[in-house]
Write a structure and sequence with these properties.
about 140 residues; alpha+beta; five-stranded antiparallel sheet; 2 helices; about 45% strand
């Protein structure tokens, strides 16, 4: 995708979220490493995670850290089934593909439907071996 297309998608996603037509459950994730999402590099910390559905086919992920005031928005490229181990735990997760010390958001699963994991575009890891870091999320109610 071109830089223009990425920016257009982010702008459209921002409008959907800002218009207030989105509904989403807020989850919380403690992410102990820096990571990339939607072209932004995020610091380690506690993040509010929302996947908003606007009532159309487009979903939007938003991440926000109250500590660093960093935020990012990303549009999933697809949905997919989660692994049996993740599904059997029945807890929402956020997963990252890491190569060396570089991690990128790979998918978010709300813990409800096996087919509702939202997958995101990740850069190619290069020659370094890669691993998947899965972090359990919990409800942000009462925060």
């Amino acid at each position: 995708m071109t830089n223009f297309t990425n920016r257009l998608m982010v702008a459209a996603a921002t409008l959907v979220v800002a218009a207030g037509v989105a509904s989403a459950e807020t989850l919380k994730a403690d992410i102990p490493f820096a990571f990339r999402v939607g072209g932004a590099t995020m610091s380690p910390g506690t993040y509010q995670v929302k996947v908003a559905n606007s009532g159309t086919a487009t979903s939007v992920l938003s991440l926000y850290s109250a500590d660093t005031r960093q935020s990012a928005i990303a549009v999933p490229i697809a949905t997919h089934d989660v692994s049996s181990a993740v599904a059997n735990a029945n807890r929402p997760v956020i997963a990252f593909e890491c190569a060396g010390n570089r991690c990128s958001l790979q998918y978010v699963w709300d813990g409800k439907d096996r087919r509702s994991a939202y997958r995101f575009a990740t850069p190619k890891p290069g020659d370094e071996p890669s691993r998947i870091a899965v972090i359990e999320m919990h409800s942000a109610k009462g925060d």
